[in-house]
Amino acid sequence: MTSTTTPYIFFNGNCAQALDFYGKVLGAKLEAKMTYGESPAAAHVPADAHGKIVHARFRIGDSVVMASDDVRGQPPQKASRFSLSISAAKAADAERIFAGLSEGGEVSMKMEKTFFAERFGSTVDKFGIPWMVICEKES
């Protein structure tokens, strides 16, 4: 049996902006996107939610990530106890990705050389999503 694990991120009404951001910073390729207004859920959500994203799928390299806006009226929750990890082939690429993801966000651990990596850093992006960026040591 083959299975995959795909992260699904819920945004607080700014999923479209996050998709654009990840396209610019990570080269993410949008594969699918539908708004609440375009979906069968349109009649069940407030009219001001019709332009929000009910489902999106994007690819970062070989990895798939899915996302949507949470329009249930729940108070926003801060993501915790997980991070999305992205690997870079070169230290310069890791530095560039980390700088992009950190812009407007909050750095948890600055990008630096460590005992286990050529470069490693962790940040929470401006959408509240925690990321770890790593460039492995050459063996």
Describe the overall structure.
The protein is of the alpha/beta class and 139 residues long. The chain has two domains: 8-69, 2,3-Dihydroxybiphenyl 1,2-Dioxygenase, domain 1, CATH 3.10.180.10; 84-136, Signal recognition particle alu RNA binding heterodimer, srp9/1 (2-Layer Sandwich). The protein contains two helices and eight strands. The chain has helices spanning 15-26, 91-102; strands spanning 8-11, 29-35, 53-60, 63-69, 84-87, 106-112, 117-124, 130-136. The strands form two sheets. It has a four-stranded mixed beta sheet with strand order 1-4-3-2, with helices on one face. Strands 5-8-7-6 form a four-stranded mixed beta sheet, covered by helices on one side.
Which helices and strands, and how do they pair?
Layout lengths: L7 E4 L3 H12 L2 E7 L17 E8 L2 E7 L14 E4 L3 H12 L3 E7 L4 E8 L5 E7 L3
Parallel strand pairs: 1-4, 5-8
Antiparallel strand pairs: 2-3, 3-4, 6-7, 7-8
Instruction: State the assembly state of the protein chains.
Output: single chain
**From the 3D coordinates, which CATH architecture of the largest domain would you assign?**
Roll
Order of helices and strands: EHEEEEHEEE
- Determine the structural class based on helices, strands and strand pairing: alpha/beta
Structural shape: elongated
The order of strands across the largest sheet is: 1-4-3-2
Number of strands: 8
The overall number of domains is: 2
Secondary structure: helix percent = 10-25%
Question: What ranges have pLDDT less than 50 throughout 5 or more consecutive residues?
Answer: none
Q: Report the sheet-strand fraction.
A: 35-45%
- Radius of gyration (CA) equals 17 Å
Which whole number gives the mean pLDDT? 93
Assign the CATH class of the largest domain. Answer: Alpha Beta
User: Could you name the CATH topology of the largest domain?
Assistant: 2,3-Dihydroxybiphenyl 1,2-Dioxygenase, domain 1
CATH superfamily of the largest domain: 2,3-Dihydroxybiphenyl 1,2-Dioxygenase, domain 1
Number of helices: 2
Major sheet characteristics: 4 strands, mixed
